[in-house]
Amino acid sequence: MTRVAVVTGAARGIGAATTLALTAQGWAVMAVDLAADDPALPYPMASEADLTAVVKEADRLAGRPGMVQAVAADVRDADALRACVEEAERQWGRLDAAIAAAGVIAGGAPLWEVPAEQEQTVLDVDLGGVLNLARAAVPALLRAPLPRAGRFLAVASAAATRGLPMLAAYCAAKAGVTGLIRALAVELGASGVTANAVSPGSTETSILAESARLYGLPTATAFAAQQPLGRLLDPAEVAAVLAFLASPASGGMTGAVVPVDAGLSL
């Protein structure tokens, strides 16, 4: 049986690494990404070329084409995400997991000085995008016959529990994600569908590079010093935990926010 997932933010970073991790384990993946720049944000988003490269690498890992379907869609568009879920069901006959990994960052100034459109974009993508995916995917996960093993997963952040100066909207959005996951876990109850999140520390992604720029740091490697492991995380390390949480082996977990943070939360 081929298990099927929808992954947002799939063109780079943790979303891309998760797409590849699942594909390497035999999953079929609907890889969703905006794959275009956002005019409200001052740094480049992933591109269509990035998304295409993920599909190519997934084909290589799977040993055959067709295990990953790329879709350019905005997680702020609830109808677009619903269409992605429906297409996954149409193409592969089922949905086993939905993973909300799309994220952006903005700030670099006190809350009251951050441009309102940047603040709203962070809230709409980082929290609203998770809500939209849940609205689209959870009904599909619940359509599976009993006994179910559906998984709804989200990428939170150490920022959900740490007050990061000049990143107030990002902290608020990620704290919202953890609250959403806990509430959703209770709502799903004994349905067989679980809801969990990972909470990464400083990970080598474009978001961390932009964070370094916002803080006036020469490179993102400066963040490594705050983590007890003394290094940045690789996106694949976070993806490995997401792949476990997506699997039937995680059936005893729901409402969990798992730190994958190199010890940052200690």
From TrEMBL:
Alphabetic keyword roster: Oxidoreductase
Keyword Oxidoreductase in record: yes
Entry-linked InterPro entries: NAD(P)-bd_dom_sf, Sc_DH/Rdtase_CS, SDR_fam, SDR_subfam_2
Record keyword Transferase present: no
Family as reported in the entry's similarity comment: Belongs to the short-chain dehydrogenases/reductases (SDR) family.
The protein's name in its UniProt record: SDR family oxidoreductase
Organism, scientific name: Actinomadura parmotrematis
